[in-house]
Amino acid sequence: MKKVVATILVVMLFVAVMGGCSKKETKKTIGISVDQLFESRVGVIDAAKAELDKNGYSYIEVVADGDPQTQNAQIQSLINQKVDAILVCAVDQNTIETALLAAKKAKIPVVAYDRDLPESEAIDSFVGPDSIADGVEAGTYMAEQLKDENGKVVVLELLGALNDQNGIDRSKGFNEAMAALAHVEIVAMPTDWDSAKALSATQNAFQANPDIKAIFAATDTQIPSIETVLTDLGKMNKVGEEGHVIVCGINGSNDGYEATANGIADGIVVMDLKTTGETAAQHAIALIKGEEIEEKVVIPGIFYTTENIEANKDTIWGAK
């Protein structure tokens, strides 16, 4: 009798082990390729990972630290590990195409998030901000504030990185909106998303054009640099005060929130990081299941001013 019971237990253990192995083998894995880690990127990635966890998917996260060649190699490594789908935010939209085409050849679906890859032949879907609309929102507000100014009005535009589609599109949208004012001259200065470069660019711009009336920052993390320059020049007058220089930005960081809440900036466009991350993960899952998805989903931000930003603090990712 003891022998029979022992045999039954062994069989039950075998079935349990095999069942566990079978369950483990069927769990899908998604590769997450990150360009570099900073506050807003972490917000998108955390939302994507939470969505994958919720749906029972595992993931492998790799970070390129801003190096396109590293990202190329990391994507190839994800392919070699036979991930079931790849989420990618490109360092450089041209450099990683070779690796993305290798993923396509291996029949691994690819979802680009946050940064569009419009020339890519390997992307199945893009989920990210509507950067043109975000630029238009900031530009429309600024144009409204400047429409009654007399004579030529000089506006400083602090550009993002010009190899970044978000930087290109934010500038495009901003300039489209400002084109409504014939008396405005826009002085564009490159910053490559770098706050130190934004500081020197703002200093140089004011040295050449002391009467700059307004500043558009492609990312609101550069507003502290703007504040430093305005303070040094004795021009740091808050919203509503005589001599105020209009300041707008895009992102939704704590820098942007605090500057707008305190009247240093007039307003910021706040990106929806949570929806972007969740939707990108949902697209990857849908592609693994063979379901149809939209090829492009853009999520516009919301513009908040000094008048309403504190009332909406709970919806602003950088203010939490």
UniProtKB/TrEMBL annotation:
Give the molecular function GO annotations.
carbohydrate binding
One Gene Ontology cellular component annotation held by this UniProt entry: cell envelope
Q: Which UniProt keywords apply?
A: Signal
**Pfam families documented for this protein:** Peripla_BP_4 (PF13407)
* UniProt keyword Signal, yes or no: yes
Please state where this protein is localized: Cell envelope
**Domain named Periplasmic binding protein: which ranges?**
44-292
Q: Which top-level group of life is the source organism from?
A: Bacteria
Family membership, please give it.
Answer: Belongs to the bacterial solute-binding protein 2 family.
The protein, known as: Sugar ABC transporter substrate-binding protein
Q: Which organism is it from?
A: Vallitalea pronyensis
